[in-house]
Every structure is written in structure tokens, then in C-alpha cells.
Design goal:
Helix 1 packs parallel to helix 2 and helix 2 runs parallel beside helix 3. The chain starts with 6 loop residues before the first strand and ends with a helix. By secondary structure, it is of the alpha+beta class. It is built from three helices and five strands; from the N terminus they run βαβαβββα. The protein has one domain. A hairpin with a 2-residue loop joins strand 3 and strand 4. The model has no long low-confidence stretch (mean pLDDT 80). The strands form two sheets. The protein has a three-stranded antiparallel β-sheet with strand order 3-4-5, with helices on one face. A two-stranded parallel ribbon has the order 1-2.
Length: 142
């Protein structure tokens, strides 16, 4: 018989660009969720970098800082697990539609995302998000 999974929904108020403060909020809420018996804590989109980041995501230093904090959170999350995996995805596609030799439609799409899996004994946890950010990975990890 499969046991149920207790999920905690963590509503936090992250500050844009406050990676240390936002990570602390994530850690505190994840710890509280664990104390209350949750198997998984779910956080809002962009909790690590803060919402909305607008054009900050175009600044390499902002993205790098986000990734560094994400790596720390991911390492903390899988500490004590028997195994852990992080899958990253990023793809771009273009489509051009022609009719009688004339361009009729054009589109460009970018998709990104990740999957995170941790295993401890016979228990496994998995999370996926289409937002490829440190905040999303941290939310999934907790």
C-alpha cells in the first residue's frame, strides 16, 4: 500500500534581488513544513530571485548570483539523500510558413525547465518546473 504525501504550500513575500534574504525565507518555511510533517514544500514562482525581476534577468551578474544560491540550496536539499539528480532543459525553435513562395507566418519559441529527483531508501521525491531559475529549483528542492 502506498502512503500519502503531505504537501505544504509556503506563501512567502520575496524581495527582488535579495538572494540571501529570500533563501533564508525558503529555508525557514521549509524547516517549518518539515516540523509539521510535510513531505514536500511548494513555494511561489521566482521565490529565490524575487518577483517580478523584469530586466534584471538580462544582467549576467544577477543570473550568476541566482545560480550560485540555487546550487547551495540544491546541495542542502539533497544532503542526506542516497541519490539526487537535476535535469536541465533549454530549447529554441523557429517556424516559418510560406504560401505561394511568400512568407505568411513566423514564430519563435524558447522553452526551458528542470526536473529534480531525490531518493532516500525506498522514498523518492520529484519536482518539475518550466521556470529555469534558482528560485524554482530551490522551491522544488524543498
Amino acid at each position: 500500500m502506498l502512503a500519502g504525501v503531505k504537501v505544504a504550500l509556503a506563501q512567502i513575500n520575496p524581495t527582488v534581488g535579495d538572494f540571501d534574504g529570500n533563501a533564508a525565507k525558503i529555508r525557514e518555511n521549509a524547516a517549518e513544513a518539515r516540523r509539521r510533517g510535510a513531505d514536500l514544500a511548494v513555494f511561489p514562482e521566482l521565490s529565490l530571485c524575487g518577483y517580478p525581476p523584469f530586466d534584471l534577468v538580462e544582467r549576467p551578474a544577477f543570473v550568476q548570483r541566482n545560480l550560485e544560491e540555487l546550487e547551495r540550496l540544491a546541495a542542502e536539499t539533497i544532503a542526506g539523500a542516497d541519490d539526487g539528480e537535476l535535469f536541465l532543459e533549454y530549447s529554441q525553435s523557429e517556424a516559418l510558413g510560406f504560401d505561394d513562395g511568400k512568407l505568411k507566418t513566423a514564430s519563435f519559441d524558447t522553452s526551458q525547465g528542470f526536473g529534480l529527483r531525490a531518493i532516500k531508501g525506498e522514498a523518492a521525491g520529484y519536482a518539475h518546473a518550466s521556470d529555469l531559475s534558482e528560485a524554482a529549483i530551490r522551491r522544488a528542492a524543498w
